[in-house]
Specification:
The protein is α+β, with helices and mostly antiparallel strands and 108 residues long. The chain contains 3 helices and 6 strands, in the order ββββββααα. It is elongated and about 65 Å long. The structure holds zinc ion (ZN).
Length: 108
């Protein structure tokens, strides 16, 4: 999949890109980013000729080029992904570990 599409998890419109090989990644992965450019993003997106959309991580060593646009990785804004990572409401009877630790009396 490459080009405009939808996130399979939340059905929001995204732009499917193919990742370029980077310093730590082999590339060639499919990565959804925001459908429109987003100056707050960290992913440089360009069009390879008239066909494939290519993305890469912007770094200090490889800053954004004039032929690229900044997009936000969809993972950062996907409500479905957020739900998987951070459950806002815990099931009844389940205590947050961080709060339990904070409330535990200090041992001398
Ligand atoms: Zn999504």
């Amino acid at each position: 999949m490459n080009g405009p599409g939808r996130c399979p998890d939340c059905a929001q419109p995204v732009l499917w890109t193919r990742t370029q090989p980077g310093a730590t990644t082999a590339g060639g992965m499919q990565m959804p980013v925001s459908r429109l450019p987003d100056p707050a993003g960290n992913t440089a997106v360009r069009r390879d000729g008239t066909t494939a959309w290519i993305s890469r991580r912007v770094t200090n060593a490889q800053p954004l080029m004039g032929y690229e646009r900044l997009h936000m990785p969809h993972q950062a804004t996907c409500p479905a992904a957020r739900q998987k990572q951070l459950p806002l409401e815990l099931p009844a009877g389940v205590a947050r570990l961080d709060e339990r630790r904070r409330n535990r009396p200090r041992r001398p």
